[in-house]
Write a structure and sequence with these properties.
Elements lengths: L2 E5 L3 H12 L4 E5 L2 H11 L3 E5 L9 H11 L4 E6 L4 H9 L4 E4 L4 H24 L2 E5 L3 H12 L5 E5 L2 H10 L4 E5 L7 H11 L5 E5 L4 H10 L2 E4 L4 H14 L9
Parallel strand pairs: 1-2, 1-3, 3-4, 4-5, 6-7, 6-8, 8-9, 9-10
Length: about 260
């Protein structure tokens, strides 16, 4: 059942749409202002928001509220409803993150088709998210984690988690289903070897890539013992990406990044 939020200050429009979509087995909630709508969005995370551009005098306009929604959760589908018909208004709405743009007045059947498309798109996205590999990046240097996250997330279809310490990494290994571990070796407290031991206790097949300043025969042997590979620091991001792709392919979870 799709969860639908209608944000409009026009009572008649809201009630009409509520009745229309409830008959089509949607869970529908009405909010007449941006503040109350945002509270609901943060608490309940609706699937789709039908958002009017003009929310009444003295209120935040719909387009700026659209940005708030997308900043909170970009996966929420937002359909803009407005009396404006010019191309500039449409372009502005899409530039702000709108998923569709409908001019008032509209036929409810047309809006139903738009909502159905968004529900189908959400279902596909959720299905895809279940297939995407989870990569855990472990490093006590925030800059290193962010660099790896930014570079890989733009080039590899994946979900990236971060840990700033060995302890945090072990907690995430226990709670999440991690497909690939990308870890530093030398960290305060729990070291990379202990993180790898935990990873191996959970899964003997989890690919592990170690990024470390240590580069020696002893390190090479240690990596073999864990069934891991290591890349010396400072590292090439292209080499890291290549290794990540290789490991994901080995477990059947490599997907080409679109766009």
């Amino acid at each position: 059942m799709a969860k639908l939020l209608i944000v409009d200050d026009d009572h008649d429009t809201c009630e009409y749409l509520k009745e229309f979509f409830e008959q089509r087995k949607c869970l529908v909630v009405i909010k007449n202002s941006a503040p109350s709508a945002l509270l609901f969005i943060k608490a309940e995370r609706p699937d789709i928001v039908l958002l009017d551009v003009r929310l009444g005098e003295g209120q935040q306009d719909g387009l700026s509220f659209l940005q708030n929604i997308k900043k909170f959760d970009a996966t929420i589908k937002v359909v803009i409803m407005t009396v404006a018909s010019d191309d500039q208004a449409r372009e502005k709405a899409f530039a702000f993150g709108a998923d569709d743009f409908i001019q008032k007045p509209f036929h409810a059947a047309y809006l139903e088709g738009v909502v159905s498309q968004k529900v189908a798109a959400l279902a596909q996205e959720k299905k895809k998210s279940l297939l995407l590999p989870k990569i855990l990046i472990v490093d006590d240097e925030m800059e290193t984690r962010q660099t790896l996250r930014d570079y890989l997330s733009r080039r590899v279809e994946c979900e990236i988690l971060e840990a700033s310490s060995g302890y945090e990494a072990i907690e995430k290994l226990k709670k999440e289903t991690i497909d690939l571990l990308l870890t530093d070796m030398k960290m305060p407290g729990i070291r990379g070897t202990e993180v790898m031991e935990q990873a191996r206790a959970i899964s003997e097949d989890m690919p592990i890539i170690v990024l470390t300043k240590w580069d020696s025969a002893q390190m090479s042997q240690q990596m073999k013992d864990f069934g891991a590979e290591y890349i010396p620091k400072p590292f090439s991001l292209k080499i890291v990406k290549s290794k990540v792709e290789e490991k994901l392919k080995s477990i059947g979870k490599f997907f080409i990044k679109n766009g």
